[in-house]
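Work Package 3 (structural annotation) set out to generate three-dimensional models for the target panel prioritized at the project kickoff. During this period the team completed the workflow that converts sequence records into discrete structure tokens, so that structures can be stored uniformly alongside our sequence database. As a representative example, we reproduce one entry of 303 residues exactly as it appears in the project archive.
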Amino acid sequence: MGALRLRDDEGAFLRSAEHHRTPPLIEISRIYSASRALEEGTESVEDLEFLQGKGTSLGGLRPKCTILEEDGRLAIGKFPSIGDDRAVTRGEVLALALARRAGISAAAARLATIESVPIALIRRFDRTDDGARIPYLSAASLLQASRNEDRAYTELVDVLRAISVQPAQDLRELWRRLVFNLLITNVDDHLWNVGVLYAGDGHWRLAPAFDLNPFPDKRRESKTWLSENSGPITSLAQLLSEASTFGLAPADAESIVAEVANAVRDWRPIAASAQVGLKEIEIDVFKHAFEHPDADAARALSG
């Protein structure tokens, strides 16, 4: 659906009604308070009227909205939820910062603190500098996958080989992301969290990574299988055994693991930095997402 737009009889793109305008960043505090009231079941008629049409529906289970930043670029504002048992918004900004350090193309992200509440602002990558839309397709759309079936990254590999403007680079990048997901325990890697952007002339390219979250309370088992034979990703050894499917020689694969491990090993100082702002007690909550046997094995490869 992200690659479809509708025109009227005169050929102009159809646009939302004026009351569906994207709100500016200055309104995010009001959006957060209204969405929190909705989560708590204490919303007023005024809250509902305010929320109606504030940006587009973004899907997912967590409260979020589309927001217009000061420079005129679109971003997604992600709010803490009443059910959170850890600093989820800070954790996502941490994961995206580590991903970029690990050589992964990832969505730009920062935190905005509204009345001491940390709100993650994730810059949209499906727009050009002048605001034009870049068609986007999820991996689920590419594979025509439904949510109740198990699908594999090797299926996505086959599709990328056929449609990517730079297949070798995209496959290498995809495998790097799988290593990163394992090392930070990002197990919310379903096919709606991976996608491609239109590159022109009938070709696509892997979109920047997004929705990267450390899950310290989860077992390290991917939602998307590695291959139809190997099942979900549960270990570094399993990833290395399938590296050739992604066009990687053993030495190249080990080099990528070392680069990712070196980036992730500094997670604690990055978490405590002004960019992320986690307190020591909050950092300890994330410990098991980053410190585990596969992380040790990856660091061993990095020397």
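The mean pLDDT is 89.
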